[in-house]
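Try this one yourself first.
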C-alpha cells in the first residue's frame, strides 16, 4: 500500500513516494533508538534475576511486552507533540537530519496520534495484567509511573521537555524507573540499598538526554523550548554531557563497594572500560561538534550512545552472572 499523499521534497531529506505503509511504520518507530529503552530494561531484568536467584520467564515476557508498547508510544507521541518544532527545524535547515515523520509526510499526524495512544493504552493494559498475575499493585503503580513520566516529559499541560527539566526527567525515566520496574517484577523484595546499582546508568542517561538537544539548539530556542542547549549554548551542553558521562563511568567502579552481592568489581570494571573505549572517541569529536556542524554532532552522539549501550549490556551481564 503506497502513501496516500505525495511527499514534498526537502532537499536530502525527501522521502520516496513508493514507500509502503509497512516501511513508513517501521521508519516512524525509529528502530535505531530502541536500545535507549531496551538496554535499561535488560539491566533491570538482570539485576532482579540475580537478586531473586533465578529468572521468572512469565514476568519477563509481560514486562518486555510493556516495554515494547511503551517504546512505541514514546516514539510516536513524542513526534506528535514535537510537530511544530520539527516543522520549524525543517524550514530553518532543510538539508539537516533524517526525515521527520509528520513534517515530511511519512505518516499523518492523526495516524501518529492514534497509534501512539493505542500503544500507551496497551502498555497500561499490560500493567493491569501484570498486577493481577503477581497479585500485588506494585507492577501497576510502577508501570503507570513510567507512562506518567513520559506524559510529563512530552505532552501538555506539563511538557517539561520544552519548559526545562526535561533532561533530568528523561534520565530518571530511562535510567531508573524502567530498570527498577523490571527488577522488582523479578525480585519483589529487592532491598532499597540495591537501587544504587542503577546509579551509573541514570547518570549516563542524563548525558544522553542533554546531548539530544545539541542538534536542535537554534530551532528549539526559536520554537520556545527550554533545554540545557538552548539556555546555556552548545559548548556548555557538551561539557554537561561529558561530566555526566564521566560520573556515570566512575560510578560503575563504586557500585561493587555498596552492592557487591549483585555485581563484582571485575564485571563493573568491564562496564567502565566499555564506556571509556567509546567515550574517548566522543571526547575526541567534542571540539568539532559545534552548533549546526551536523556530521560532527552525529558522530559525537553516536559514540556517546555506544558508550552507554555497550557498557549497559556488559553491566547487565555482569549482574546476571555475578
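Now uncover the answer:
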Amino acid at each position: 500500500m503506497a502513501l496516500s499523499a505525495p511527499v514534498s521534497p526537502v532537499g536530502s531529506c525527501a522521502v520516496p513516494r513508493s514507500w509502503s505503509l509497512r516501511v513508513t511504520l517501521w521508519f516512524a518507530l525509529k528502530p535505531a533508538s530502541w536500545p535507549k529503552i531496551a538496554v535499561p530494561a535488560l539491566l533491570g531484568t538482570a539485576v532482579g534475576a540475580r537478586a531473586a536467584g533465578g529468572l521468572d520467564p512469565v514476568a519477563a515476557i509481560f514486562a518486555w511486552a510493556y516495554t515494547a508498547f511503551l517504546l512505541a508510544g514514546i516514539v510516536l507521541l513524542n513526534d506528535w507533540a514535537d510537530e511544530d518544532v520539527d516543522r520549524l527545524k525543517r524550514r530553518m535547515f532543510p538539508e539537516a537530519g533524517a526525515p521527520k515523520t509528520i513534517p515530511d509526510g511519512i505518516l499523518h499526524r492523526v495516524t501518529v496520534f492514534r497509534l501512539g495512544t493505542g500503544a500507551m493504552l496497551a502498555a497500561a493494559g499490560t500493567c493491569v495484567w501484570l498486577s493481577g498475575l503477581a497479585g500485588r499493585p506494585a507492577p501497576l503503580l510502577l508501570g503507570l509511573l513510567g507512562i506518567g513520566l513520559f506524559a510529563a516529559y512530552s505532552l501538555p499541560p506539563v511538557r517539561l521537555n520544552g519548559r526545562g527539566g526535561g533532561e533530568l526527567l528523561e534520565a530518571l525515566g530511562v535510567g531508573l524507573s524502567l530498570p527498577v520496574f523490571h527488577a522488582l517484577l523479578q525480585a519483589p523484595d529487592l532491598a532499597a540499598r540495591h537501587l544504587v546499582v542503577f546509579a551509573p546508568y541514570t547518570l549516563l542517561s542524563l548525558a544522553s538526554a542533554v546531548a539530544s538537544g545539541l542538534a536542535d539548539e537554534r530551532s528549539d530556542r526559536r520554537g520556545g523550548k527550554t533545554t540545557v542547549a538552548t539556555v546555556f549554548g552548545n559548548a556548555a551542553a557538551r561539557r554537561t554531557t561529558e561530566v555526566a558521562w564521566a560520573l556515570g563511568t566512575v560510578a560503575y567502579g563504586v557500585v561493587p563497594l555498596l552492592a557487591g552481592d549483585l555485581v563484582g568489581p571485575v564485571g563493573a570494571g568491564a562496564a567502565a572500560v566499555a564506556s571509556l573505549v567509546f567515550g574517548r572517541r566522543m571526547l575526541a569529536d567534542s571540539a568539532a561538534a559545534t552548533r549546526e556542524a551536523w556530521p560532527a554532532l552525529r558522530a559525537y552522539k553516536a559514540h556517546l550512545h555506544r558508550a552507554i549501550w555497550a557498557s549497559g549490556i556488559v553491566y547487565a551481564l555482569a549482574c546476571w552472572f555475578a
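Discussion: The CA atoms of residues 62 and 130 lie 7 Å apart. Residues 1-12 have pLDDT under 50 and may be disordered.
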